[in-house]
């Protein structure tokens, strides 16, 4: 069960009722089972119904039920960023430790939550066991079916979890499903004693309401029938108990790839507005916490009362993580508006921190500032916190802060040379032209810059060709355009005709000289198309060469061979009661931020396509990589958002690595924070931390309080005896065993490699007070806790100023 959506729509009785119905089921059958609430649901239950929470906590203590899943917001992890996935597990596990006194050990979520790096993240918060049986509800997830009921699930880095499989003994929550299973099992011959005992794995989303179909009163008769059947010996256990019992068996190891799974969700619906909000909120939040961490190295004055805005940032994460809940992705027409408000609240908190911290940092540098909220090519004035700067025209310099963990070249307007900005650091550069920027409308014709020639026809909405040194013959075999399926045929949007008179589409193309890259922006509005993914608004990229597909997932990059068929089901009317129908989705694949079309015959060249949120792709038989821009989802009934704005950055390239691909994508998608600066600076550049190992990227830099480690044995900050430890996340992307060399501008007093929760794994030697070296496995996601001397909180002697407050109220004297 979950607080998101279910309690929003049904009321405060949902979680207490689910707990009590589960315990009633256990008492009636002797069952021991597993409970899967969202982490925020446990927090809400503890505060809203302490009695029901006490019953659940006692059941966990007694071993009647086991906490499983325990992500904070039960996301489709595949659709969200790598660091969001790390925080989902961190915040969820910490909630379980804080509220129940136990560290969760078993991953088992109802909805599809899979990507190749997930086992490593789960192991990082203490998980030993897992299940890959995801229930079909609004979506139709597929992972490979296995004959055995247990395997070793192996992640991209080699991390392994004992895992229950998707197999023929999996049961959904309907009693009718039990009848089919009984019939199948009755046909079985004597089981092979050398194989693990078969496991019946069943989901029950219990809510004791006549307005819900899964409740103990409906399920108990069929369960008791199964228990009393003389043909079977049924024994109950928690999932971890079962998996531990088969640990010594000869289990197969499985490393599933992204082209072997199908999420089965209506990805692309409503122009992916929810996923775009998630991306924007995560990027803003990562920027805010990194900027606040760096600013703390300059001492007082702080941007707020304390050295770090802990509560604001953590509350921003909670809003983001709950908004990423699977029901907000699935049920946009039902509860998605509440998830959208959570994204907006998260953004409002992180935006405030960016503005106040950047202006405070400017004061440390001897000046004053106001902040722009940047999108690529679109500087936008946001706030002037300190009033000394009246007009943008008065600016002489701009403070550029880089939220990414590596050096990057940032383009400046007016034809000036790009400036290099250090990772997680800043430079002061000549002031930009900040009145705003709109790319010119070239209409039909050519434009050339930076060694790239682009041919386009804006009236027809088609990008015709890209010619570069890597592709002198042209990179495209067919124009890039928007298309729709009408009457079973695919049509160009510009040529669909009167039936689509409400459809508008605007094409803008611009060559980004500093990369170089071709920016393709498509925006417009579309009348509601036919239902389903196949009928949605799409845009295709057909390379002029045979290409293999390389795409990214959370904290990973891999080569894909999309050749499967995914089943997607929809209701014919009312989502709860109407018959359902299926469509076949041919050769689908997903990409978190980029698709690279790599020349099969010449792998030293390719066309990298970076997108700003359109994650659903398909591979046509002719080699076209087709992106789903918008679709109408029948699960949302009458709700449909036809407006869309999608951006693609086409980067022709020579030989590059996976780490290079990640750098390029993030640099195009996450511009620096720009703060107009006025004054005489005492610092021109600050380079706080740098990793000189090219295949390892620094992905997050933030702080937390020692209270975050409550209940975590071996929490590093307790050993450091510092209240605000720094946390550095780093990831290896090229599959190469490495030693990451990391250098710091501040003094490093202590450093330790930890798990995701901060439990100390190994001390790290500090070399010359400013360097550490971190051993990295291929594809490892590592966490380092740091005590940086200059960042330690500076406590004011307020007692020396007691006279300001102590007697000031005695005005009559």
Largest sheet: 7 strands, antiparallel
- Strand line-up across the major sheet: 21-22-33-30-29-24-25
- DSSP summary, beta strand count: 44
Name of the CATH class of the largest domain: Alpha Beta
Coarse morphology = globular
Level-2 CATH architecture of the largest domain: Alpha-Beta Barrel
Structural class, by secondary structure, is alpha+beta
For the record, the count of structural domains works out to 3
Instruction: Give the CA-CA distance, first to last residue.
Output: 64 Å
Radius of gyration: 28 Å
Number of DSSP helices? Answer: 16
Specify the helix fraction band.
10-25%
| CATH topology grouping of the largest domain | 7-stranded beta/alpha barrel
Q: Which runs of at least 5 residues are low in confidence (pLDDT < 50)?
A: 374-393, 495-502
Q: Kindly estimate the percentage of residues that lie in beta strands according to DSSP.
A: 25-35%
Mean pLDDT, to the nearest integer, reads 90
CATH superfamily of the largest domain: Glycoside hydrolase 38, N terminal domain
Q: Would you mind describing this structure in some detail?
A:
- By secondary structure, this protein is of the alpha+beta class.
- Helices cover 24% and strands 28% of the residues.
- A hairpin with an 8-residue loop joins strand 13 (408-410) and strand 14 (419-421).
- The longest helix is centred in the middle third of the chain and has 29 residues, at 336-364.
- Mean pLDDT is 90; it is low at 374-393 and 495-502.
């Amino acid at each position: 069960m979950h607080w998101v959506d279910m309690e929003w729509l049904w009321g405060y009785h949902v979680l207490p009722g689910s707990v009590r119905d589960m315990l009633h089921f256990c008492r009636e059958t002797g069952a021991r089972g597993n409970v899967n609430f969202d982490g925020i649901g446990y927090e809400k239950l503890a505060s809203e119904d302490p009695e029901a929470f006490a019953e659940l906590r006692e059941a966990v203590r007694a071993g009647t039920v086991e906490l499983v899943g325990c992500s904070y917001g039960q996301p489709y992890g595949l659709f969200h960023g790598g660091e969001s996935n790390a925080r989902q597990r961190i915040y969820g596990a910490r909630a379980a430790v804080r509220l129940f006194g136990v560290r969760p050990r078993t991953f088992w979520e109802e909805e599809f939550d899979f990507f190749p790096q997930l086992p490593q993240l789960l192991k990082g918060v203490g998980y030993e066991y897992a299940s890959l049986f995801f229930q079909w509800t609004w979506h139709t997830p597929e992972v490979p079916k296995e004959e055995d009921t247990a395997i070793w699930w192996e992640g991209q880095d080699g991390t392994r979890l004992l895992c229950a499989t998707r197999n023929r003994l999996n049961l959904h929550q309907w009693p009718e499903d039990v009848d089919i299973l009984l019939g199948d099992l009755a046909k079985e011959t004597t089981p092979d004693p050398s194989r693990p005992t078969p496991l019946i794995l069943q989901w029950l989303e219990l809510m004791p309401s006549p307005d819900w179909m899964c409740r103990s009163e409906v399920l108990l008769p069929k369960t008791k029938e199964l228990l009393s059947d003389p043909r079977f010996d049924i024994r109950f256990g928690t999932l971890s108990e079962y998996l531990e019992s088969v640990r010594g068996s000869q289990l197969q190891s499985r490393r599933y790839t992204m082209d072997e799974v199908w999420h089965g969700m209506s990805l692309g619906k409503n122009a992916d507005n929810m996923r775009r909000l998630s991306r924007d909120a995560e990027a803003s939040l990562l920027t805010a916490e990194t900027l606040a961490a760096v600013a703390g190295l300059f001492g007082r004055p702080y941007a707020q009362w304390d050295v770090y805005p802990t509560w604001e940032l953590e509350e921003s994460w909670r809003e983001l993580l709950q908004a990423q809940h699977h029901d907000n992705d699935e049920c946009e027409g039902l509860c998605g508006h509440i998830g959208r408000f959570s994204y907006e609240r998260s953004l409002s908190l992180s935006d405030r921190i960016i503005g106040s911290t950047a202006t405070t940092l400017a004061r440390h540098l001897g000046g004053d500032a106001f902040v722009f909220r940047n999108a690529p090519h679109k500087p936008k004035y946001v706030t002037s916190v300190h009033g000394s700067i009246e007009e943008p025209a008065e600016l002489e310099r701009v403070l550029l802060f880089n939220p990414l963990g590596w050096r990057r070249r940032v383009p400046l307007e007016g034809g000036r040379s790009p400036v290099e900005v250090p990772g997680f650091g800043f430079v002061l550069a000549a002031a930009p032209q900040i009145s705003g920027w709109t790319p010119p409308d070239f209409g039909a014709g050519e434009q050339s810059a930076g060694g790239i020639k682009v041919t386009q026809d804006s009236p027809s909405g088609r990008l015709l060709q890209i010619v570069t040194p890597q592709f002198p013959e042209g990179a495209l075999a067919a124009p890039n355009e928007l298309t729709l399926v009408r009457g079973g045929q695919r049509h160009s949007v510009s040529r669909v005709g009167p039936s689509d008179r409400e459809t508008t589409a605007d094409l803008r193309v611009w060559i980004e000289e500093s990369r170089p890259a071709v920016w393709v922006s498509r925006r417009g509005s579309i009348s509601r198309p036919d239902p389903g993914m196949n009928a949605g608004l799409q845009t295709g990229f057909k390379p002029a060469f045979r290409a293999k597909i390389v795409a990214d997932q959370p904290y990973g990059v891999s080569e894909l061979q999309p050749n499967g068929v995914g089943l997607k089901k929809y209701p014919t009317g009312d989502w709860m009661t109407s018959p359902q129908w299926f469509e076949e989705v041919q050769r689908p694949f997903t990409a978190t931020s980029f698709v690279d079309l790599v020349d099969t015959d010449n792998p030293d060249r390719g066309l990298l396509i970076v997108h700003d949120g359109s994650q659903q792709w398909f591979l046509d038989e002719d080699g076209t990589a087709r992106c789903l821009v918008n679709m109408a989802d029948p699960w949302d009934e009458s709700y449909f958002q036809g407006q869309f704005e999608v951006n693609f950055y086409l980067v022709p390239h020579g030989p590059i690595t996976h780490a290079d691909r990640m750098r390029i994508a993030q640099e195009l998608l996450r511009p620096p924070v720009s703060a107009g600066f006025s004054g005489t600076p005492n610092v021109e550049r600050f380079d706080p931390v740098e990793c000189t190992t090219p295949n390892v990227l620094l992905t997050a830099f933030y702080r937390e309080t020692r209270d975050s480690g409550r209940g975590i044995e071996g929490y590093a900050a307790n050993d450091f005896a510092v209240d605000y430890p720094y946390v550095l996340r780093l990831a290896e992307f090229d599959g190469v065993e490495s030693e990451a060399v990391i250098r710091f501008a501040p003094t490093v007093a202590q450093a330790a490699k930890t798990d995701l929760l901060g439990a100390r794994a190994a001390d790290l030697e500090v070399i010359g007070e400013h360097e550490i070296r971190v051993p990295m496995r291929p594809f490892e996601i590592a966490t380092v806790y740091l005590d940086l001397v200059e960042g330690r909180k500076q406590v004011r002697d307020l007692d020396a100023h007691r006279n300001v407050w102590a007697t000031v109220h005695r005005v009559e004297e």
